[in-house]
Design brief:
37% strand, 3-stranded antiparallel β-sheet, alpha+beta, 7 helices, 5-stranded mixed β-sheet, 231 residues
Length: 231
């Protein structure tokens, strides 16, 4: 089985091609580009078409503890516990869970999102004529990518620096325990740095800037473009 993972990190579209080998998926390739039109995205999507297409949605991560050591019974009891985790009614939510059995019972990691957010997510991809077969939680997708890059990484803090937002997850024993989003990405950071740079010049830059004062606008554009490429 082959899966094409898509993530729209404005203005970038990021693609990951995965293939199931044995019991594990292996990453085959990664691509990133800035789409000019929805048609351009559709052409690339058709070129890279796999058995399944997956996307990721922002989700709350919550922990629930049970005194029973049966994954089936935990699954059956989850709906009665989930409403206590959020102000939304169960009818307004979609969720998935990861259950870990231990000597004291069971622990369930629950990924929560509103149905409204899911509909909005699917509508966004519909603009590109893409209809995902699977929608996963971004924190879980980030965990999988971390395990791919660092197979022995089991405990720690992971930060994904996106263009529009930063996603942070806390991992314990290979499981996501917490997740939160910072609604300011790299683009905002670079913009703020440039504004500060225009107000304060380092001493060793003054002479160079003075010589190029007539070319300030073109110089500014070149610097910004270079920074974005490096990022």
């Amino acid at each position: 089985m082959k899966i094409l993972g898509l993530h729209y990190d404005r203005p970038f579209l990021r693609l990951a091609a995965l293939e199931l080998k044995g019991k594990h998926f292996e990453l085959q390739s990664l691509k990133c580009f800035v789409p000019a039109t929805p048609e351009e995205v559709k052409r690339l999507y058709m070129l890279e078409r796999k058995d399944l297409v997956a996307t990721g949605i922002k989700a709350l991560v919550r922990q629930l503890n049970f005194k029973i050591s049966s994954a089936k019974k935990v699954e059956e009891g989850l709906p009665f516990q989930i409403e206590s985790l959020t102000s939304l009614n169960l009818e307004e939510l979609v969720y998935s869970s990861q259950i870990l059995l231990n000597k004291d019972g069971a622990e369930a990691t629950v990924f929560l999102a509103s149905k409204e957010a899911l509909v909005s997510h699917l509508s966004e991809w519909k603009k590109f004529s893409i209809h995902p077969d699977l929608v996963t939680a971004i924190p879980q997708a980030l965990l999988k990518f971390t395990h791919f890059r660092c197979p022995n990484f089991r405990d720690g803090f992971v930060v994904h620096l996106g263009s529009e937002e930063w996603t942070c997850i806390w991992i314990e024993k290979g499981i996501v325990k917490k997740s939160f989003v910072i609604e300011e990405g790299i683009e905002s950071l670079l913009s703020s740095l440039w504004e500060d740079r225009k107000k304060v010049l380092f001493q060793n830059e003054v002479k160079g800037v003075a010589k190029q004062i007539d070319l300030l606008n073109s110089t500014q554009s070149s610097i910004i473009s270079e920074v974005r490429v490096i990022a």
